[in-house]
Amino acid sequence: MNLESALRFSHTLLAQAVQPGDTVIDATVGNGNDTIYLASAVGKTGRVFGFDVQESALKETQTQLTLTGLTAQTTLIHDGHEHIEHHVPEDTQLAAAIFNLGYLPGSDKSVITHGKTTIAAISQCLSLLVRGGLVIVVSYYGHPGGQDELAQLQRYLKGLPQKQFQVLTYQFINQQNEPPILFAIQKR
Ligand SMILES: C[S@@+](CC[C@H](N)C(=O)[O-])C[C@H]1O[C@@H](n2cnc3c(N)ncnc32)[C@H](O)[C@@H]1O
How do 181-187 and 94-100 pair as beta strands? Predict the structure, then answer.
């Protein structure tokens, strides 16, 4: 048995929270790895809402979804995740959401997620979350602006009321080069 990377562990957690027919959010689509994983997990009776501010990333993901036969259950939205409430119905029973923070490898490194908008988006997801549902945040913070976002995020997550949410962190603490940190927020 090997301890899983933060990225792999995010899918292990999602696998337990997401069932066919569920509604979920990929808040940072990028190359679409999580979108494809989620679209497969919810199946044709479920719904994935995917957000990204980079149209080129969404187009590439749309191509991958078409090739894998997963378009029917997926809605890709070219907008910031801080506007989730403008696109996702307010009576949605959200089973899970995932955020991969930072910049998209291989693309414009100046397009990064930011603490204020990330926290606004997490807060909107938490208000739609079902009991037992999960919001997973994988934070990469080695780039300019990353530490600032991480500090804001940790402050926000530590302040979430314990009676309503439990918050987990997962990180290899003896690795070089700022290993990613996974946060998992579960609604009680
Ligand atoms: C680390 S990448 C995501 C990687 C992705 N999960 C994948 O599988 O390839 C972060 C993404 O967040 C996007 N992003 C930055 N600010 C955003 C915002 N306010 N709303 C939605 N997406 C945003 C970037 O364009 C980038 O594609």
Answer: unpaired
* Tokens 């990028």, located at residue: 30
Q: Which amino acid is at 167?
A: V
Q: Output phi, psi for 73, to 5 deg.
A: -100, 10
Domains of the chain, each with CATH number or no CATH = 6-187 (3.40.50.150)
CB 52 near ligand 1, within 6 Å: yes
Pick the atom of ligand 1 nearest to 54's CA.
Answer: 25
- Whether 116 is in the pocket of ligand 1, judged by its Cβ within 6 Å, is no
- At 116-160, the pLDDT tens digits run 999 999 999 999 999 999 999 999 999 999 999 999 999 999 999
pLDDT digits (tens, 9 = 90+) for 13-57: 999 999 999 999 999 999 999 999 999 999 999 999 999 999 999
